[in-house]
């Protein structure tokens, strides 16, 4: 599954392609745990969200390999 | 059908006239305009420039949701939301929101709702450049 990264997260997370099956990732929550474990810097963020197909995703959403998945640090537009 | 919503995310200078002209309408008695500009200081530090990065496809969708709420629930007749991305210098416009409505109260309310919500939900990120470094705004507590 392809990962799209933004802002400060792009400076920490180095992979943009994650094998869901190999890493036993089924849901958005699994992906968050995988990322937190591998990139502990994410713990220092105020918050972060996962978007699936350009929509904010809840933790229980099931991921598919062809989904467009983005990791979004706290927004600061305007 | 007449277009009521104008959403743009762009790398070029934002134009107030473009937003104003889009929302003006004979049925409207009031028009509120918010312009967000880049200031030269934040928390006492001198800023040299900002860079905005966007998840553009999703930003356009989230901005459209805001615009639809303004029209369907806040009494706006027409709305224009423009956000700049890329490098933006001091005093340049980062965001413009123009809202027209039959009476002024709805225009003020919708305009305030639009900028407040944009800052909370639209996936755009600001990096501030200081004389001696740079950092992503709001990233850490």
How would you describe what is shown here?
- The complex is a heterodimer of chains A (78) and B (141).
- By secondary structure, chain A is an alpha+beta fold.
- Chain A has a single domain, classed as Roll (Ubiquitin-like (UB roll)), CATH 3.10.20.30.
- Chain A has helices spanning 7-12, 28-38, and strands spanning 3-5, 49-52, 55-56, 69-72.
- A 4-stranded mixed β-sheet of chain A has the order 1-4-2-3.
- In chain A, a hairpin with a 2-residue loop joins β2 and β3.
- Chain A is globular, with a radius of gyration of 12 Å.
- Chain A starts with a strand and ends in a 6-residue tail after the last strand.
- Chain B is an alpha+beta fold and 141 residues long.
- Chain B has one domain: Molybdopterin biosynthesis MoaE subunit (Aldehyde Oxidoreductase, domain 3), CATH 3.90.1170.
- Chain B has 3 helices and 9 strands.
- Chain B has helices spanning 16-23, 56-73, 104-121; strands at 5-10, 30-37, 41-42, 45-54, 78-84, 86-89, 93-101, 124-130, 133-136.
- In chain B, the strands form 2 sheets. In chain B, strands 3, 4, 6, 8 and 9 form a 5-stranded antiparallel β-sheet that branches. A 4-stranded mixed β-sheet of chain B has the order 1-5-7-2, with helices on both faces.
- In chain B, β3 (41-42) and β4 (45-54) form a beta hairpin.
- In chain B, α2 (56-73) packs antiparallel against α3 (104-121).
- The longest helix of chain B has 18 residues, at 56-73.
- Chain B is elongated, with a radius of gyration of 16 Å.
- At the A-B interface, β3 of A face β4, α2, α3 and β8 of B.
């Amino acid at each position: 599954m392809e990962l799209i990264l933004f802002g400060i997260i792009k400076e920490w997370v180095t992979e943009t392609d994650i094998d869901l099956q190999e890493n036993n990732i089924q849901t958005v929550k699994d992906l968050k745990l995988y990322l937190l474990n591998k990139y502990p810097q994410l713990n220092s963020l105020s918050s972060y969200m996962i978007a699936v197909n350009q929509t904010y995703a809840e933790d229980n959403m099931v991921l598919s390999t062809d989904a467009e998945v983005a990791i979004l640090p706290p927004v600061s537009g305007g | 059908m007449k277009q009521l919503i104008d959403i743009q995310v762009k790398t070029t200078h934002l134009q107030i006239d473009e937003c104003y002209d889009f929302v003006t309408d004979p049925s409207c008695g009031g028009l509120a305009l918010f312009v967000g500009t880049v200031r030269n200081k934040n928390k006492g530090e001198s800023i040299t420039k900002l860079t905005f990065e966007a998840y553009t496809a999703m930003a356009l969708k989230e901005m459209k949701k805001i615009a639809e709420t303004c029209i369907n629930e806040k009494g706006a007749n027409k709305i224009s939301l423009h956000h700049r991305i890329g490098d933006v210098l001091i005093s340049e416009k980062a965001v413009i929101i123009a809202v027209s409505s039959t009476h002024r109260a709805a225009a003020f309310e919708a305009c305030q709702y639009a900028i407040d919500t944009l800052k909370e939900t639209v996936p755009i990120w600001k990096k501030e450049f200081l004389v001696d470094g740079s950092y992503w705004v709001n990233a850490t507590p």
